[in-house]
Amino acid sequence: xxxxxxxxxxxxxxxxxxxxxxxxxxxxxxxxxxxxxxxxxxxxxxxxxxxxxxxxxxxxxxxxxxxxxxxxxxxxxxxxxxxxxxxxxxxxxxxxxxxxxxxxxxxxxxxxxxxxxxxxxxxxxxxxxxxxxxxxxxxxxxxxxxxxxxxxxxxxxxxxxxxxxxxxxxxxxxxxxxxxxxxxxxxxxxxxxxxxxxxxxxxxxxxxxxxxxxxxxxxxxxxxxxxxxxxxxxxxxxxxxxxxxxxxxxxxxxxxxxxxxxxxxxxxxxxxxxxxxxxxxxxxxxxxxxxxxxxxxxxxxxxxxxxxxxxxxxxxxxxxxxxxxxxxxxxxxxxxxxxxxxxxxxxxxxxxxxxxxxxxxxxxxxxxxxxxxxxxxxxxxxxxxxxxxxxxxxxxxxxxxxxxxxxxxxxxxxxxxxxxxxxxxxxxxxxxxxxxxxxxxxxxxxxxxxxxxxxxxxxxxxxxxxxxxxxxxxxxxxxxxxxxxxxxxxxxxxxxxxxxxxxxxxxxxxxxxxxxxxxxxxxxxxxxxxxxxxxxxxxxxxxxxxxxxxxxxxxx
Length: 556
Hints:
Blueprint: H1 5-12, H2 18-65, H3 68-76, H4 84-96, E1 100-105, H5 128-131, E2 136-142, E3 145-155, E4 161-170, H6 171-211, H7 216-232, E5 236-240, E6 246-249, H8 251-257, H9 268-272, H10 276-282, E7 290-294, E8 297-305, E9 311-317, H11 319-357, H12 361-385, H13 389-404, E10 408-411, H14 424-442, E11 449-457, E12 460-467, H15 499-509, E13 513-518, E14 524-530, H16 547-555
Parallel strand pairs: 10-11
Antiparallel strand pairs: 1-4, 2-3, 3-4, 5-6, 5-9, 7-8, 8-9, 11-12, 12-14, 13-14
């Protein structure tokens, strides 16, 4: 049963594996080079031996003609089979391996010939050119068959032409030598083909290892899938070569890093500038899940070396997660504060109940007034100095958390901040991070105190947070702003070392600055200047009234 056309086509087609295709193509290439080369080697020898044979015959003829004794014997002896010319010519013929050496006179009569019967007869080919003084080389047919011939004039001592010398080399011997040379040439060609096939096999094996024995169609499909995957995943991928230059950058990496395709072929330092992000991508900072800040984004980076000396770095956006983590920390603090307040409230209620049971009504009234008044005074003090509702609420909440942690949070008497903030949320981030760091610094110390100062200098907002903690050594006052640097244990949701870095980036983005020095009486003082953080007075937002003013407006 004959195979179907489709099966027949499949059998005649190229193999699918890269190894087999590479071996087949390279073997065909080696054969394609060896066969024409052999043909080129064989073609010239078919002409070259003829030319060499004729030149050899001509050389023997010249050598014979230059022997003075030959010319003298030709002039003084008759053409006989045992004459001196015959004997001299036969000696030369046998010594040189020529087919014949014929010496003739000007009439074309032979004085010598291998066949004694031909001595004294006329030559069978035209001796005219040689007798006219010309050297002749030719392939011709004579009495001894086809031969390569050389003819030269024979001169006496005075230079006169007295005859000619004709030497022939058997043509069949030339062809035999050519035929005998063919096996050697074919052997060389076969050896070259074998070496080429071996080289092709070795190269194919290397290709097989590098391609993992996949078919070309599989490799093409993998490349297409890789492109779709790299540009489709929501994780940044940056590939670097062994020289540290970017060679691949997917869409998400471009978005997270804020760079474009022009970064391909450049180093991270050239693309991103000096900083932790460039250090992480370049491998100067090692580890897993490294935190770095790029713009307003908190990124988690991992770097994996590749076999070719390069590396692949992955980037994940942790901005929202870090914000949620900080909110979770704040929420936990508030929960702890509420739990403590609940306990304190229960104690106060027990005290109030005791006063009522003892019928000490005046003392009960005074006790309730003191308790309520403390909280009211704290809130009123903050809102009188800080008119922005978001900042005021933040400070009131931080004061409650600080109180439960045994820390006195004080808003400086010099604090005056109008409700003209351009970016209230950014300022909340800055103040919140600075207060949290200060609370952590003074936790567990005696007479722990944190003071916050917020004031306006034209359109510049100046923020200052002082604490009574151990302070920051001068050699570390710049290092504390490095991403990932921290002296505290990481929280449950992730790593530390982001807060102060974000503060500096937010300040620098607005053209401001952050400085750390020693506070009066010890501890640390962080000062932040934010130019253009306040709107001009004539551009003050419509909603500038405080809570009390709003209540009055509603009562009207």
